[in-house]
Amino acid sequence: MKRDLPTLDVASEDFAADPHRVLATLPAGTALARSSRGLEVLSYHACQEVFSSKSFTPCMPELGAVVGVTNRDVLSFVGEELNSHEGAEHRRLRSAVSGFFTATRLRRMREHAAEIATDVVSSAGRARRCDAVGEVGIPAAARFFCRLLGAPESDAEEVHRHSVAFSAILRGENQSEYREFRDGIDAYLLDLFDHRRAEPGDDFLSHLLCTEQDGRRSRAESLRLAITVLGASTEMVAGQIALLIDTLIEHPEQWTLLRERADLVSGAVQECARLRPTVFATERITREDAELCGVPVQRGEFVFVHIIAANRDPEVYREPDRLDITRPIGHPPLTWSVGRHFCVGRVPSVVIMEEVLRAIRARWTAMRHTAPPQTIGQPYSVRPLFMPIAVDQEPASRATEREASTQDRTYNDMWRPQWT
Q1: CB proximity list for 194: less than 8 A, separation 6 or greater
Q2: Measuring CA to CA, how many Å separate 236 from each of 47, 181, 219?
Q3: What pLDDT, in 10s, does the model give residues 188-208?
Q4: Which one, 160, 184, 392, 411, has the greatest CB density within 10 A?
Q5: Within 10 Å of residue 219's Cβ, how many Cβ atoms?
Q6: pLDDT of residue 158
Q7: How far apart are CA 112 and CA 131, in angstroms?
C-alpha cells in the first residue's frame, strides 16, 4: 500500500520557471513526493540512498522509450552507456577510465589546465568585455579535454561540437540526426586512435589502447568509452564554468573574499557547483521491489533524484540558499553524483574549473554582467548559451605576482574519501 506523500507537478510552467520556488512550497523536511511520472526524491540522504542502492539503477533506455524516443539506434546507444551497465561488467568498464587518473597524471593534468586557463582568461580579459560561455568556458574546457584525450588543441571546436551532439542524443533530442552524429564521432575518434597507435602518448586514448592490448577490453568497447569521455566533456563543463563566474558576480562579497584568499579556490568551485549545478535531476528505475525512507517502491517504478533539492537540504547545509565559499566539507554536493555511478568526468572537470578560477582570480579585479545571461534546459538542467560580462583586468606584472603566490598547489586533496 502506497503511503500518502506530497505531490509535485514537475510538468507545470511554475516548476519550469523556478523549480526552487516550487520545491520550497512543500512541507519542511519532505524527503519524497509523488508526481505523474513516478517518485520524486528530494532530501540529501534519500538521494544518497538511491545513488548507493543496487535496487535503483540508471534507466536511460527505459525512460527514453516512455518519453517518446522511437529511434531504436538511439535507444541502443544509450543502453551501451557506461552507466547503463551494472555489476562486474560495469566495474570492468569503469576501471578502464578510473585507472587512467593516477597521481602522476593528475599532476600533469593540472599543469596543462593551468596553462590553458591562463591563456584563455588572459585573452578573454583583454577586450574588457567577453562572453563567459563562448570565450571562457567552451575554449578552456574543449582545449583541456583535447589534451586529455590526446587530440591537438586545434581540434577544440570539433571536440565541442561532438560533445554538444552527444548530450542532445542522450536527452532524446535530434533522433533523426543520430546516424550523422554517430558516423562523425566514430570517424573522428578512430582517426585519433590510429594516430595514438602510431605515436603513443600519456593520454586517455593511448591508455585505452594499452589496456586493450592486454586483453582487458575489445576495440569496440574502447571506442564506446572514448565516445563517453569525449561526449561528456565540454558542454557540461563549459556550462559549469560559466555558472561559476555568474554565481561569483551575483555574490560580490564572496568574490572579494576569494580575491583575498587563494586557499579558497577549491571551496569556491565546490560551493558554486552546489548552489548552481548544471544538472537539476537524474533518473533511476526500481529493478526490484524496494523501500526508500520507509516508503514501498514497486519494481519498474521510475525514481527521480533532485540534485538541486539535495544540494540545498537544510538538514545538511546550514543556510543552504547562501553562497559560502568557506563552508566546511561535511557532505559533498551531489552535483557529480556519488556511489558506483558517479560521474566519470568529475576529476578532470573540477581540475579545469579550479584552474580557470585561479587564472580569473589572478587577472580580473572585478566582473559584472552587461546583459542577462541566456540559458535553456529548465526544469531538468540549465545550459548557459550566452553570458556577456565586463571585467577589469589586473596589470600583467601584478597578475603574475598574484599567480605566483598560488603555484604550490596540492594534488592529492581534490577528493576526500566520502567522494568515492
Answers
A1: none
A2: 21, 18, 27
A3: 999 999 999 999 999 999 999
A4: 160
A5: 12
A6: 97
A7: 23
User: What would the grid cell of residue 120 be?
Assistant: 584563455
Residue 306: DSSP 8-state: E
CA distance 222 to 149: 12
C-alpha distances in Å from residue 335, one per residue of 240, 280, 309, 346, 363:
10, 8, 11, 9, 28
Q: Are 52 and 339 in contact (CB under 8 A)?
A: yes
Q: How confident is the model at residue 420 (pLDDT cuts 50, 70, 90)?
A: very low
Are 296 and 289 within 8 A, CB to CB? yes
Q: Which residue has the higher pLDDT, 345 or 300?
A: 300
Where do the domains of the chain lie? 13-419
- Rounded to 10 deg, the angle between the 138-149 and 204-213 helix axes is 30
C-alpha R_g of the chain = 21
pLDDT of residue 232: 87
Give the torsion sign (CA, 220, 222, 224, 227): negative
H helices of 70-102, in order, are 72-79, 87-98
pLDDT at 345: 87
SS3 content of the chain, % helix, strand, coil (to 5): 55, 10, 30
Q: Is the CATH number 3.40.50.300 carried by domain 13-419?
A: no
What is the Cα–Cα distance from 159 to 292, expressed in whole angstroms? 40
Cell digits of residue 298: 514497486
Instruction: Give me the half-sphere count of Cα atoms (radius 13 Å) on the Cβ side of residue 297.
Output: 27
pLDDT in tens, 313-323: 999 999 999 99
Q: What is the largest CA-CA distance in the chain?
A: 69
